[in-house]
Amino acid sequence: MTASIRLALFAVVMMALATAPLAANGHRPAPMVRYAAKAIRGARRRGRPKKFNRPSRAVTLTLPDDVLAALHAIDSDLSRAVVRAAQPFIPEAPRPAAELTMFGDRAVIVVPPNLRLKERTGVELIPLSDGRALISLDEGLSIADIELRLHDALADPSFDRDDRAVFEALADILGNARRADGVTVRRRSIIVLHGVREGGLADIA
Fold first, then answer.
1. How far is Cα 72 from Cα 31, in angstroms, rounded to an integer?
2. How far apart are alpha carbons 92 and 203 in whole angstroms?
3. Tens digits of residue pLDDT in 40-49
4. pTM of the prediction?
5. Nearest 10 degrees: Cα torsion 123, 125, 126, 127
6. pLDDT at position 76
7. What are phi and psi of 103, to 5 degrees?
8. Element of type H or E holding 17
9. How far from the centroid of its chain's Cα atoms is residue 162's Cα?
10. Helix axes 143-154, 161-179, angle to 10 degrees
11. Every domain of the chain and the residues it spans
């Protein structure tokens, strides 16, 4: 149940309480009071997830229709489209060790091309043009397996600071996604062509 629905239910309950007859002891019926308290607690717990992983604020813009159409072609979410369009003009900032890249109502995890991540978890890293990498899973390797291997690896005292930062960030993302309401974590396959001889891929490029 979303926060808005909970708040609406809370408003209905409060209206009912205001008009409900008092009990013999002069108090409102206890079950209705408990329900109202539960509704407001749930509404406070649930909130809209952060859209960006850095400080943000709401702004109001008036834009030409053709600009709006161009932005919607970049991303159906207008604020993400503006961020993506402006990204080339933003000075390069240190990137998180692992982060989510959003597209629509979905997201993928991108990481630096960390060799120990591949060795210790069994994942394949698919390089991206910006120097980061996507995570690909071999058949038989589950997301739960990866999360367990991440925590096992973090117990290794030989990890240096950079490797540990990548493993901790990835473990946090997977753990938070597993516990979050309204989020599912799913496997998706990608097509990878493997050259069996030197220069073989050049024949189809």
1. 48
2. 36
3. 455 444 445 5
4. 0.54
5. 180
6. 86
7. -150, 110
8. helix 3-19
9. 22
10. 140
11. 3-45, 61-93, 96-205
What is the rounded CA–CA span in Å between residue 121 and residue 130? 23
Alpha carbons 156 and 50: distance in angstroms, whole number: 32
Q: Which residues pair with 99 in a beta bridge?
A: 110
Q: Band of the pLDDT at 194, cuts 50, 70, 90?
A: confident
Contacting residues for 127 by C-beta, under 8 A, at least 6 apart: 113, 133
The residues, any chain, with a CB within 8 Å of residue 146's CB and separated by 6 or more, are 121, 122, 123, 137, 174
Predicted confidence (pLDDT) per residue in 99-132, tens digit: 888 887 888 999 999 999 999 999 999 988 788 8
What gap in Å lies between CA 36 and CA 17, rounded to an integer?
Answer: 9
SS3 94: coil
111 - beta bridge partners? Answer: 133
Token look-up 């978890």 returns: 121
